[in-house]
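new request in #modeling-help
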Amino acid sequence: MQTAWKDYQKQNEQRFLDEMLELLRIPSVSAKSEHKDDMRRCAELVRQRLLDSGCDRADVMETAGHPVVYGEKIIDPAKPTVLVYGHYDVQPADPLELWHSGPFEPVIKDGKVFARGSADDKGQFYMHVKALETMVKTGSLETNIKFLIEGEEEVGSPNLADFVRQNKALLKADVILISDSSMISMENPSLDIGVRGLSYIEVEVTGPNRDLHSGTYGGAVANPITILAKMIASLHDQNNHISIPGFYDDVVEATKAERELMGRAPFDEDDYKQDLGVNELWGENGFTTNERTGIRPTLEVNGIWGGYTGEGAKTVLPSKATAKISARLVPNQDSRKITDLLLAHFKKIAPASVTVHAFEHHGGEPYMTPIDSKGYQAAAKAIQTTFGKEPVPVRGGGSIPICSILEKELGIKIVFMGFGLDNDNLHSPNEKYNLENYYKGIETIPYFHKFFAQS
Amino acid sequence: MQTAWKDYQKQNEQRFLDEMLELLRIPSVSAKSEHKDDMRRCAELVRQRLLDSGCDRADVMETAGHPVVYGEKIIDPAKPTVLVYGHYDVQPADPLELWHSGPFEPVIKDGKVFARGSADDKGQFYMHVKALETMVKTGSLETNIKFLIEGEEEVGSPNLADFVRQNKALLKADVILISDSSMISMENPSLDIGVRGLSYIEVEVTGPNRDLHSGTYGGAVANPITILAKMIASLHDQNNHISIPGFYDDVVEATKAERELMGRAPFDEDDYKQDLGVNELWGENGFTTNERTGIRPTLEVNGIWGGYTGEGAKTVLPSKATAKISARLVPNQDSRKITDLLLAHFKKIAPASVTVHAFEHHGGEPYMTPIDSKGYQAAAKAIQTTFGKEPVPVRGGGSIPICSILEKELGIKIVFMGFGLDNDNLHSPNEKYNLENYYKGIETIPYFHKFFAQS
C-alpha cells in the first residue's frame, strides 16, 4: 500500500500544489470585516475540494460569524472515526510593506511557498484533504474521516463552541487530529503535547478630550502615551516575571523530571539568536528558552499606537493611546479568570488624570494531550515510519483556543501533528511553508489513519 | 485716523475674510513631501496678496527646502522698519477622522473659522497683510514694513537660519513683530514675553529581525514595544520630574518675585479641567499649571506605534516600535545640547536584547523678550488702546524655533503679539480662529506701527 500511496502522490504532486495555491490566493482574513465575502468564497472552495477529494458530503454551515466547512467520508460506521480540525481563515497581512511579494499572490522560491496562510493553516489542513484523496483513490482508507474546517481561529473561535454543542452527533469521532503547529526540524521531528491558552485584550487610555498643542499644554496635562507606557512597563518586574497580583495563582509548575525531559530537546541558542538577529535573549529569570515558550505563561504587547505616527514631526499631546495585549496561559490557568484579572488590573493602576477603557478580544484555554493515548501513539508511529526517527514530545507556545472545548464537548482527545517549522513566519510578513514539509505531511497522514485503525 | 482705519476695515470685512479662507484652502503641510506643490502654490498666493495689499515688492525666494515669501513697503528709509515674521505652512491634519469638517475646507460656525492653519499661522500673519492695506489705503503708514513669511516653521525652520544669514541687508529692521501665539482671553489680553525651545527626536527600537508569532516566541525574545514603554516610563520620576541626568543643568530658575507676578495672571483650574475634559491635572510637583507650561522644561511623547494596530486582534511579537518625543526648553537650555543628551540617553538605557536608532527631527532655542523694550511697549499700548485694558505679560509654552537666530543675526528684539486663544486647537483636529480675534488683530496692528514710529 505504501508504494501505491507514494506513486499516487508523485503523479499528482503538481496538482496538489496548485490546489493549495488556489486556496492561498483568497484573502480570507477573519479579523477584517472588509474580507467577509472572501471568507465565504474561501469556505465554498474548501467545500468543493472536500467533495472532489473523496468526501461523501461537504457543507458550508452557518454560524453567527464566518461559516464552518464540514465534510465527511464514512466507510463503515463500525470503524474508528478521525475528526480533522483546521481553519481556512488567516491572520491580517500587515505590515504589507515588509512582504517581498504579495501576501495573497503565492510565490515559490527555494522550495518554499510564500503566502499568508501557507503554513497557518491552509497549507497544513489541506495536507489532510490530499491524504484523504490518496487513500480513497488507492482504495486503502481504513477509518472514517470527518473535517471541521473553521473560519474564525485567528479571532479566537468565538462561535465554534456553540457550533460544536449544536452538532455533537455530526462531529462524533474517536480522536481529533490537528495540523496547525510546527516540529523542531525535519531532522528532529517532534509532536506537540500541549498548546498554551490565550487572553487577548485591548486597553485604551484617554487623557484630554482632544489632541492638544504640546507646547501650550505640555507639562500640565497627563499624556496618555506616557501613562500607557508606565502601565505597560509595570507589567514585568526586573526578573521579567509578570507582576500582576494573582496572575500565577493557578499555574501548575512543571516537575523537575518534566523539565529535565524538556531539556533534552535539541536547542542551539546561537542558532536561535542568529535566526532572530538578536544579541541577547530575553525572558523570565530561572527558565530556559524552551521553558519560557512552553511551560510558562507570558504577557506580550501585540500593538500600540497613539499621537502622530506620520512622516516628520508634529508637536501634539494626544487625546488617546491604545495597546493590544495578550497573555499565553498554561495549565491550569483559566482564560476567563485571567482576562478579568487583566481588565481589572489596567483600570486599577490607571491614575485619576486619565480614563481607561479596557475590553476583551478573545481567549482560549490551555490544553495538554496525554502521551500514552492511542491517538498520540498512532501519530508517533506515523512520524517514525516516514521520518525514520521517533518524534520528541514538546510543549508548543501557540494557542488553539477551541481545543479544550472540543475535548469537553466531544469527549475525545486531540493529537497535534504539525508539519510546520518555527521559522515559517506565522503571523508575520513573508509567511512560508516548505514544499518538502507539505509533501511529507501528505505522505505521513495516511499512516496515522492506518495505525489508528489498527490500534 | 482711527475712524478712517475702522471705516475701511468695516467696508472690507467680508473680503478680508474671503482672502483668509482662500489661503486656508491650500493644504500647505510642510512635513509631508506629497504637499510640495501645495507649498509653492501657497507661497505664490501669499506673494500676490502682499503685492495687492500695498507692498512695493514681493518675491518667492528659494531655500534648500520650501520657499520663503519676502515682501516690503518702504515709505522712507529714515523711518523705523518693522519686520513681520509669520509662516504659511501648517501642521499635518491627522487624525482626519476627528475633524467635523475638512481641514482644508474652511467652515464658519458660531463666529469661528474651522480649518488647519486658521490660527497657526495663516489667519494670524494675514492680519498684518490686511493691517498694511488699511494703513496704505488710508494714507497713514508711519513705518516701513517688511514681511518674512516662511514655509518651514512647523518642521523646525531647518533652512531659515541660512536664509537670514544670506539676506541680512534685505531683512534689516528695528523690531520683529510676530503673531503666532495666543492671549489669555479677549477679556484678559496678554502678551507673550517668551517662547520655549524645542528638541524633537525619534526613537526606533528593534528587537527580532522580523515580526514573530507571539505564541511561538513570546516570553523568549524581547518585545520592542515593552522595552520602549519601559524606556518612556523611566523618563519621569514619581514627582513627574524629568529623570534624565543633566536635563535641568542649565535651567535658569525663576525668582520668587517672577513666580509671584505669574501667579497674578487669571487662571481657573476648574474651567481649565472642564475645557480639557480631565478629572485631574498632571505635572511636575511643586509648580502651578502656568509655571509648568511657562517656566519649566517638559518632555512629551508626541506619537508611538508598533505591532498590529488594525481592527480586531493579531498575536504578533513585533520587530520594531517607534516613538516621536520632544522636549520644551527654557532659558538657558541649549537645544543642541539637550537633543544630544536625549539621543545618548535612549541609546544608553536600551538593554542588549534590542538595538536603538535615535535621530533628531529639529530643535530651536528658547527666547525671552524684554518688557522694557520699545517694541514691547508699543505692543502693550496698542492692546491697551483697542482692548481698553493693559495686557498681562506671560510666558508662552510653545516654540518658534527661529527666534533666537533672528535676534542673533539681525541684532534686534522680537515682540510677540498673538491674537489666538489656547483653545484654538492648534496642532489638533478642528483648529479654529475666532473671527472676533481676527478682526481685533487687524484693528490693533496699525496702532503698534503708530506707537512704534512715535517712540
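bot summary: Chain B is about 35% helix and 20% strand.
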